Amino acid sequence: MNNEVSVIIPVYNASLFLEKAVHSAIGFDEVKEIILVEDRSTDNSLEICEKLAFTHSKIKLFQHPDRGNHGAGATRNLGIKKATGTFVSFLDADDYYLPNRFNAEKEIFKNSKIEGVFGALGVEYITEKGKEEYQAKFKNTPLTTVNYPAEGEEVFKGLLGLTPRIFGTFFHLNTLTLRKSALEKHNLRFNANLRVHQDSEFIIRLAYHCYLKAGIIDKAVAVRGIHDYNRITKIIQYSPQYNQRQYVYWKSIYDWAIGEKSLPLAAKKRIYLIYKSFDLSQKKGAVKYGYILFESIKNPDILRTQYRFNYLK
């Protein structure tokens, strides 16, 4: 893997953290290039990007052709387009890699069947307010990871909650390394229309189309910086704004699932029930309960999903 990884960093208003993120990636022998894609920041992030690109040949700076703001999905897509490495990995501009970031990949990618490797993400509390908001939403969870090693179809099933053992519902993009050829083969890109949850939506589709394998999942390979400006901690769970965002996210997954002829029926049903739960949460007034009654008669399982209280409230 030496000199084969393109690290893609979308940059938007990250001036306080960007240099640490870049420096955490630049020293790896595995890293061929660091692709900074600046998304029309309103702070001095662009100036920092230009300085970094000037000082090190590994660092390459790009902007959207119109130099506009297009969101993280479209920005990562541009990074994938510009990447020249055999592998691509991702890093948020306010996070950083740890020294063991590519340890698992060195061995796992010797198997040509493996198209992607993921690991565990740790946390660093940068501000006290950020810490309070994060712990209020996620408790004192030291790692974002899955519960046991898995690969192939079990990763996709696990993310949808379709495995006998509880796999875990998420692994973070910062810990993911992919063969670029797999992205091209399956025409996989981020949904540029999603301004939030585009990473989670991408991971679901990725796990279906590509053969993924767990790497280091019991200790962190990268760290998420927790500060006052993390969007993930600003929305109260099961609030109207939370339900709206989840609805948009799961509608995108549902629309994708409809077009996938070979998608297992159990997966299609699971995706539909989650999507419909958040869809029902958007209904208002007395008519809402008519929709709930109709849906529960048509699909009784919706009353047994973990998301049922989204719309029963």
Automatic annotation (TrEMBL):
<keyword id="KW-0328">Glycosyltransferase</keyword>
<feature type="domain" description="Glycosyltransferase 2-like">
    <location>
        <begin position="6"/>
        <end position="128"/>
    </location>
</feature>
<dbReference type="Pfam" id="PF00535">
    <property type="entry name" value="Glycos_transf_2"/>
</dbReference>
<dbReference type="GO" id="GO:0016758">
    <property type="term" value="F:hexosyltransferase activity"/>
</dbReference>
<keyword id="KW-0808">Transferase</keyword>
<protein>
    <submittedName>
        <fullName>Glycosyltransferase</fullName>
        <ecNumber>2.4.-.-</ecNumber>
    </submittedName>
</protein>
<dbReference type="InterPro" id="IPR029044">
    <property type="entry name" value="Nucleotide-diphossugar_trans"/>
</dbReference>
<dbReference type="InterPro" id="IPR001173">
    <property type="entry name" value="Glyco_trans_2-like"/>
</dbReference>
